[in-house]
Amino acid sequence: MGEREVDMPAVNAQSIWRDGLDLGVAACDGELTADACVIGLGGSGLSALETLRGAGLRCIGLDRHGIAAGAAGANGGFLLAGQAAFYHRALARLGRERARGIYALTQQELAQRYLAAPDLCQRTGSLRIAADAQEERDCVQQIEAMQRDGLPAVPYLGAEGRGVLFADDGCFDPARYWRRLAATLMDGGVQLRDGTVVDIAPGVVTTTSTRIHADIVLVAVDGGLEQLLPQLANEVRSARLQMLATAPDTGLALARPVYFRNGNDYWLQRGDGCIALGGGRDLGGDEEWQAESGVSPRVQRHLDHLLREHLHSSAAVTHRWSARVAFTQRGLPVFGELARGVFVTGAYDGTGNLLGAVCGRALAQWALGQRGELVEWLAG
Questions:
Q1: Nearest C-alpha neighbor of 85 from the set 279, 359, 329
Q2: At what angle do helices 133-148 and 87-94 cross, to 10 degrees?
Q3: What CA–CA distance (Å, rounded) separates 278 from 255?
Q4: Are strands 258-260 and 126-129 parallel, antiparallel or unpaired?
């Protein structure tokens, strides 16, 4: 048996969020011309397209696998304000103005989600649950730092354990949310195309089957960004995040998404009773870095242990999958202008559901000549 195979009954190898959805788009063909070409049809790319189209530009969006094909449609479904680093750590690393400002922008994005798609985005609150006494002390530090800056965090003690409650956070159905936005964009005249990019240069994007001419070229890709743009290889590194999902568990009622063990593990229960559970990347070893896809026995056994021994769920596992995300050494997303008219963002350290959209929108605004606060904080 190969190392990447799992010695367990066969299950669906795709994200549970994609069940029943057609996320494909038409193939690229022939020479195409637009005002803007966006590479990547995840949350950041679609948000960039929304901004560019709203400014009246003719837009083409590209992805080699369709809408929300990467982590955008295969993540844990969490809507968490802030960055991957817990707030007190972000303060220490970035300074108050930048850490507080980025948090505020994701809060605004979160509020807009609840208003725009209440059927897909629910304000449930979220929990950070400590795995041991040391993490409990870290939770206290996080609460103190957030409360000093007027951010919503209070101590929590409940059935899940002891930690922090973030009342404004929530969860959503990622694949359906981004598919809905993609449909709206196409109805508004945006061309979404399937194509494998082989070269990116000012004014032109070349795929295996066509060339696209555009004044603005915007790359909005998370996992695999350093392969698409090798000049970022010293700054960006991709890894796979593994998950599983279960059949509905009628004996369990998890009210909120949970971060556990310093965020290395995470789970939620959907409205239909299915559990989506992920994590264990820190236990997977070097093989999790640069892995294209698939799951590993080591990490999946850890997820099974969490499901059975920590959540005490007996529901059958129906899905096992992974999604690629990218990380940076500086703890901030890639964000900038690579060459005249060529812009790039990505590498959200595993928390792109809100931050990715914020970055995609801000980068599109920069391409339109508007330099907001996020541009100053991320690009300098």
A1: 329
A2: 70
A3: 17
A4: parallel
pLDDT digits (tens, 9 = 90+) for 223-250: 999 999 999 999 999 999 999 999 999 9
pLDDT of residue 5: 44
Element (H, E) at 240: strand 236-246
- Give the CA diameter of the chain: 61
Q: What is the pLDDT of residues 281-310, one digit of tens each?
A: 999 999 999 888 899 999 999 999 999 999
Inter-residue contact 350 to 325 (CB < 8 Å)? yes
* DSSP-based three-state secondary structure for 101: helix
| Domains in the chain with CATH codes | 22-74+175-235+330-379 (3.50.50.60)
pLDDT (0 to 100) of residue 3: 42
Q: Is the Cβ–Cβ distance between 100 and 149 less than 8 Å? A: yes
**pLDDT per position as a tens digit, 47-64:** 999 999 999 999 999 999
User: Do 348 and 359 contact (CB within 8 A), yes or no?
Assistant: yes
Portion of the chain with pLDDT greater than 90, in percent: 92
Claim: this prediction has a pTM higher than 0.85: yes
Q: How far apart are CA 255 and CA 110, in angstroms?
A: 19
Question: pLDDT at residue 365 above 70?
Answer: yes
Tens digits of per-residue pLDDT, 164-201?
Answer: 999 999 999 999 999 999 999 999 999 999 999 999 99
One-letter amino acid at 32 equals: L
169: DSSP letter: -
Closest to 81 in 3D by CA, of 101, 39, 55, 110: 110
Is the CB of residue 179 less than 8 Å from the CB of residue 21?
yes
Measured CA distances, 271 to 111, 129, 154, 254, 350 (Å): 20, 21, 25, 10, 24
Main-chain dihedrals φ then ψ at residue 174, nearest 5 degrees: -65, -45
pLDDT-based confidence at residue 163 (cuts at 50, 70, 90): very high
In a 3-state reduction of DSSP, which class is residue 128?
Answer: strand
Residue among 197, 230, 233, 201 at smallest CA distance from 342: 201
- Which pair of tokens denotes residue 66? 């369709």
Query: 148-157 long-range CB contacts below 8 Å, 24 or more apart?
Result: 149/87, 149/96, 149/100, 151/87, 151/103, 153/87, 156/127, 156/129
